[in-house]
Amino acid sequence: xxxxxxxxxxxxxxxxxxxxxxxxxxxxxxxxxxxxxxxxxxxxxxxxxxxxxxxxxxxxxxxxxxxxxxxxxxxxxxxxxxxxxxxxxxxxxxxxxxxxxxxxxxxxxxxxxxxxxxxxxxxxxxxxxxxxxxxxxxxxxxxxxxxxxxxxxxxxxxxxxxxxxxxxxxxxxxxxxxxxxxxxxxxxxxxxxxxxxxxxxxxxxxxxxxxxxxxxxxxxxxxxxxxxxxxxxxxxxxxxxxxxxxxxxxxxxxxxxxxxxxxxxxxxxxxxxxxxxxxxxxxxxxxxxxxxxxxxxxxxxxxxxxxxxxxxxxxxxxxxxxxxxxxxxxxxxxxxxxxxxxxxxxxxxxxxxxxxxxxxxxxxxxxxxxxxxxxxxxxxxxxxxxxxxxxxxxx
Length: 395
Known about the structure:
Blueprint: H1 9-21, H2 38-50, E1 54-58, H3 61-71, E2 79-82, H4 89-96, E3 100-103, H5 114-120, E4 125-128, H6 140-150, E5 153-157, E6 165-166, E7 169-170, E8 177-181, E9 194-198, H7 201-210, H8 238-248, H9 251-269, E10 276-277, E11 290-294, H10 298-310, E12 316-317, H11 331-334, H12 359-366, E13 368-372, H13 379-394
C-alpha cells in the first residue's frame, strides 16, 4: 500500500472520460455523460468484488461511518462499543451521531477482544463497531455471533482492510453494514472517498438517501424526487470515483504484491529472538498492508523503534505514542475539546474519558511496532530492509 504507488494510464483515462463529458456531479445529466457513470460503476464493481448485495460510494471513510450509523438507527444516547486502537474517525463518527463511544479492550489481533466486549455491554448498548486494523481481521466470527445473540447492530470499520477476508468471506460483509475508506494513503484510493456495503435493501436505501440530503432517488427528475428522511451531503464527485474505479481494477494485483513483500520479510524474521507476531485469525485473508510484531516490553519496543529509525527503515510506527490512532494521546477527547458542545457529553451514561483504564490494550500497544508494506519495493530493496531490521534487533 498505498494505491497511489501504482497510478498510471488507467486512472488518467477514467478521469479524462469525466472531463470530456463535463459532468462532475454523480447524479443526472444523463445525455451529457456520454455513457460514463463512474460512481455508479464503482458501486456495482465493489459490490461484486466483495460479494455484497448493495454498495454506496461517498465522500470519505468517515462519511461512510456516519452514514452507516444513521442508516442503522444509532442516535442520541445510544452506546456503541469501539476499540481504543483505531483512527480517531471511528470515534468522531459515533460522537457526531449523538451516541456514546464505549471503549473495550483489544487482544493480540490488535482488534476488539470478543470476550472483553461482554464486559462493557449495558441496556443502552445499540451497536458494536469493530475495526479491522492495519489490514487484518478482528475475530469477526465471534463478534458477529455475540451481536446476533444480544440483538446488537454490527458495523464493520474496514477502512484499512479492503481485500481482506476471513474464511473466504470478505471483511466488511459480516455485519449489518461495512465501511471502507479510499483516501490518499489507503490500499486503493479515490484521493478522497469511501463506501458502505450491506445485504439489506432497507439499510442501503436509507444510506443512499441520508448521504444525499434525504433524496429517495426515485424517478428521472432530481427536482421532483421525494425526501422521506432528513440527510446530509456526503456525495462523492465523478472525478474521485473515476480514480477509484481504475484503482479497484488493480486490487488483486496490489494484494498480491503486498502479500509477497510481507511474506519475504516475515519469513526471515520468524524465529528472531525477542519478537513475536500479531495474531491473524486467517493468514490467507490478511490484506498484508502492515507487518506488526511485539517486543517483550515497552522499553525495548521504544529502543528498537529508535534503532530502526536511525537505520533509515522508513514506514515504521510505534502506535502507542501516535496522536491519531491510540486513545492514550487523544487529549481532545479526554478534555472534550471541540468546536461545538458534543451531544454525547450531555448524557448520564457518557464516561469520563480522562479516566478510561485499558491495561491490557496499553500493554499490547506499548510493545507493538508496525511496518508499512510498500508495493514498489524491488527484491533487492526488500533484502536490504530485512538486513537493517535484523541488525536493529541485535543492538
